[in-house]
Design goal:
about 350 residues, alpha+beta, Rossmann fold, OB fold (Dihydrolipoamide Acetyltransferase, E2P), 5-stranded antiparallel beta sheet, binds adenosine-5'-triphosphate, ABC_SmlMolc_Importer, ATP binding, nucleotide-binding, P-loop_NTPase, ATP-binding
Length: about 350
């Protein structure tokens, strides 16, 4: 799929100014709430008209302010699954799926039967949306989007209305459908696990602009920007300087770390250091080697979850309360730890992320 998008749209209090160029078959769009993900899909589908710019998908121009082209939504051949599915409540499952088909032709009838079967909707054809489950409604919405044989699927947080268990089930199903139907897909979500599981490349969108675009493994292992690190789950950040003594001064944490290979040159735009919770290690004071990457700290809070606990740790002096901490790290659920206990936090320096703001 070739996507060439350069668009601008000004709304009250929000400015979409977005440049996106990719050949990915399934592109994830990951971003915080209000970052402009849905607006991007609406511009591609033709539901919102940009103020200026161009949208070219698979070499077809959908929109060009310069050439005065603005294809009607139905001429763009995109299938759209909305956040809340937007099924018609007064139409049955079958009528909802067939809604986008203009004329009843034999091949369309066959296509409809195939879709109903492939999306496991047999037996539900004559039910109304209110009579089927959330997961089934989601499949009907997907079937309706696929019924017109679109060149491209636009999926806008298709699982946001589902509970966590069903969401996980539906992610697996969706992966099967996407590989079965082989439609080029733009997949909007703010859930990093969905984007990672379903997409090849992922674009991170921040305040109406593309922050980064990369293969998913690169995004998760080596994010280059603060926003990409945050949206992929990194929780510990500090501004930093490289000292003449070849130490990394972590200004917000008030500590120094030994130099590492991936540390950037002085001229770099990177100004924030990050490290993921699960890369930090908790070392008991009795077993700490006091190596230069093991930093003394005190536990300010402990949050126990079913499979792990999160320790909140303050450096340099004991914390004044649970909110007073510098980093958080995950430890096995069984780990014995106490608030105010002194521990050492080990920073594997090869895991440090150097990020642009
Ligand atoms: N019709 C509109 N008029 C004015 N502002 C709008 C309109 N639609 C959306 N916005 C604003 O545009 C911004 C981007 O909205 P958008 O729906 O694209 O966000 P999003 O990233 O999809 O968020 P979410 O994950 O919460 O759905 C928001 O600040 C929103 O308030």
């Amino acid at each position: 799929m070739s996507i060439q998008i350069d668009i601008q749209k000004k709304l009250q209090g929000f400015h979409l100014d977005l440049s996106l160029h990719t050949e990915a078959s399934i592109l994830g769009i990951l971003g915080a709430s209000g970052s402009g993900k849905s607006m991007l899909l609406k511009c591609i589908a033709g539901l919102v008209k940009p103020d200026s710019g161009c949208i070219e998908i698979n070499k077809r121009t959908f929109f060009s302010s310069h050439a005065h082209i603005n294809l009607k939504p139905r001429d763009r051949k995109t299938g759209y699954v909305f956040q809340n599915y937007a099924l018609f409540p007064h139409l049955t499952v079958r009528e909802n799926i067939a809604f986008g088909l203009h004329r009843k032709r034999d091949d369309q009838e066959t296509n409809l039967i195939t879709l109903i079967s492939k999306l496991h909707l047999n037996g539900l054809e004559h039910k109304y949306p209110s009579q089927i489950s959330g997961g089934q409604q989601q499949r009907v919405a997907l079937a309706r989007a696929l019924a017109t044989n679109p060149d491209m699927l636009l999926l806008d947080e298709p699982f946001s209305a589902l509970d966590e268990h069903l969401r996980k089930e539906m992610i697996k199903e969706m992966a099967q459908y996407l590989s079965l139907f082989k439609v080029k897909t733009l997949y909007v979500t703010h859930q990093m696990d969905e984007a990672y599981y379903l997409c090849d490349d992922i674009a991170v969108i921040k305040q109406g602009q593309i922050d980064s675009i990369s293969h998913k493994t690169t995004l998760f292992t080596n994010p280059l920007t603060l926003e990409s690190a945050k949206i992929t789950g990194c929780k510990n950040f500090s501004k930093f300087d490289i000292a003449a003594s070849q130490k990394i001064i972590c200004k917000d944490w008030g500590i120094e770390l030994p130099m590492c290979l991936q540390a950037p040159a002085a001229s770099t735009k990177c100004s924030t250091l990050g490290i993921r919770n699960h890369h930090l290690k908790c070392v008991d004071a009795s077993t700490a080697s006091r190596a230069s990457n093991q930093i003394q700290g005190w536990i300010s809070d402990i949050v126990k979850m079913p499979t792990q606990s999160t320790l909140y740790v303050k450096f340099n002096r004991p914390p004044s309360g649970p909110e007073d901490y510098h980093v958080q790290l995950d430890v096995p659920h069984e780990k014995r730890a106490q608030i105010k206990e002194m521990i050492f936090v080990e920073f594997p320096t090869d895991r440090l992320l150097f990020l642009e703001d």
